[in-house]
Structure formats: structure tokens, C-alpha cells
PP2A regulatory subunit B'' EF-hand domain-containing protein (Platanthera guangdongensis), 69 residues
Amino acid sequence: MIMDIATHIFTIMKQPDRKYLTQEDFKPLLRELLSSHPGLEFLQNTPEFQDRYGELTSVFDDQWFYSYS
């Protein structure tokens, strides 16, 4: 079965027992972004700041998530 890119990403991100995404499903993506994005390199040596930055961005993600769900 061939999937379009959006369906493939959705399938990878969601929990196996669900047919929808939750906020928790975005956390691994955010962690990877924080650890590998060149523009966020200054955060790599400060795990506590990464956590705070992740919490801050999750507030904005909440607004985006619920406005498009």
C-alpha cells in the first residue's frame, strides 16, 4: 500500500491503538528538533533550558493543536 506523505507521517506519529494524534505524540518530535536543529544549537548543552523551552513551545502548540483539531 502506498501512502501520501501526510498519511505516512500521521501513521508514524500516532499511537498504534489510536486513529488520531494527541499532544503527547508531538513530544518526541519536539525533543528531536531541540537536539538537532542548527538554530537551537545553543540549547544542546543546557538540558534544563531545553525542558523549559519545550514547555514554552508546547503552550503555543496547544493553541495550534486545538485550533486545527
Remarks:
- The mean pLDDT is 77.
